[in-house]
What does this fold into?
Amino acid sequence: MPIKRDVRRELMSAAIGLSLTTGFDETTVDEIARAAGVARRTFFRYFRSKEDAIFPDHDACLRRVIEFLEAASPLRSPLQVIADAAGIVLDMYVKDPRTAVRRYELTRRVPALREWEIAATSRYQRAFSEFMDGRCREGDREAFRLRHEVAAAAVVAAHNHVLRGWLRAGGEGDARAQLTAAMTEVTQALQAWVDGRTTGDEEPPDEVVIVLTTRRAPLWRIAEEIETVTGRSPS
It folds into this structure.
């Protein structure tokens, strides 16, 4: 059975390879298509522009991130959830180390591409902060908006720090383990502040809370009941 071509990946590889060899501005869509062995119209079936062919599919990755956030248990800390979601973005790069390293080399040479990538990845930060806003009680949302913005920015910065280090190392090493360690530092540093506790606040003593509900009650409804009784969001 013949192996099915991965045309999208071939076009991406051709775009990066030609741009590294002859320059990004000098490389044309026709040359990329020809190098990949496809027609010009096939290129535009997969990508909207030459820049799109350089970068991974951030649109699809952002959809996966949002789906992950929407499916997260309301019993989990929102900060922990967005820290886990950053792993989805990292995986997009780690699954193809050679392409990721070559792309990094190219973006370091071409400032315009670096700006393009920054704009593309900024959408993850916005998704993280909006998710945290949505998990906050409506009356508290405005008061906590700054904390959510800072938390989202910190998670993205930690992800980028790990990703850049892995790319500079040639795609060697366990990037996932490094990300886990980085996110542990971020969440430990920010959790109390994001929750509205000040430095020096002690954790409240353990309480026994009994909530009467039905077997079919969704988790978010149970979480609402706990929050109503205790005045705190469950985590």
